[in-house]
Amino acid sequence: MKRHKLIFIHGMGEGSSQDAYNALKHNINLTLSVKNKTNFIEHFEPVYVEWLAATELGSEMVFKKSFSGINIPQRFTTMEILSDLNRAIRYFTTYFIGDVIAYTDENDNGIRKAVQQKLRAHCADAPYSIIAHSLGSVIAFDFLYHLFIKHQFFYPKYSFSTPSEVKPYQENFRNFFTMGSPIGLFFFA
Q1: Residue 174 has pLDDT above 90, yes or no
Q2: How far is CA 99 from the centre of its chain?
Q3: 155: three-class secondary structure by DSSP
Q4: Residues 176, 145: contact at Cβ < 8 Å?
Q5: How far apart, in whole angstroms, are the C-alpha atoms of residue 181 and residue 120?
Q6: What are the helix and strand counts (H, E) for the chain?
Q7: How far does Cα 170 stand from its chain's mean position?
Q8: 15 within 8 A of 52, measured Cβ to Cβ
């Protein structure tokens, strides 16, 4: 039997969240291993869904055109935010809110495409649970809504999926865990 897959989906503007999810996984393992006297996490296989590449180039282009002459920081320290609040707000608006705006485009959504490809590659033949943060929880909720309510995949390319294509993903799904969750933010029945 294949190991249960833990699908980790990050939120807006976070970049690679693998280190943070590894720390979460470690803490879960510590708690449950002590309780059950076994290495709990060895029963699971982590799968990290990195969708940020779908918005990174567009965000960078918008930032450069909108705020020419301002360097694009990788991350802001607290002191940098306090010393140049306007710059920090511009960065947050472009790179974080930009991800939310990009996600609302249902026709050609690179975020949905990246998530869909990863889930299709890992979830058809093994049990899986989704752990998502912030915008990742919205993305995961949309995936599950389309999967269980509309019986289709949520990326438009696959919207004409057949019930037999969708069935293994429905049967293998186990749990949905969210953190910092604006679930159903863009929910339209």
Answers
A1: yes
A2: 11
A3: coil
A4: no
A5: 23
A6: 8, 4
A7: 19
A8: yes
pLDDT attached to residue 130: 95
Q: Integer distance in angstroms from the first to the last C-alpha of the chain?
A: 37
- Report pLDDT for 73: 62
| Residue 116 to residue 79: CA distance in whole angstroms | 38
Contact partners, residue 160, CB within 8 Å, separation at least 6: 152
- 127 backbone dihedrals φ, ψ, rounded to 5°: -65, 145
CA Rg, the chain, in Å? 18
3-state secondary structure of 182: coil
Contacts of 132 by beta carbon, 8 Å cutoff, 6+ apart: 8, 9, 10, 11, 139, 140, 176, 177, 178, 179, 181
Structure tokens belonging to residue 69: 């002459």
**Which residue type sits at 148?**
F
For residue 4, give both structure tokens: 């249960």
Domain residue extents for the chain: 4-179
Alpha helical stretches, state H, the chain: 18-36, 53-66, 78-83, 85-92, 98-103, 110-122, 135-148, 163-172
User: Which burial class, exposed, middle or buried, applies to 11 when counting CB atoms under 10 A from its CB (0-12, 13-18, 19+)?
Assistant: buried
Residues counted in the chain: 189
What does the pLDDT average to over 42-55? 86
pLDDT computed for residue 58 by the predictor: 80
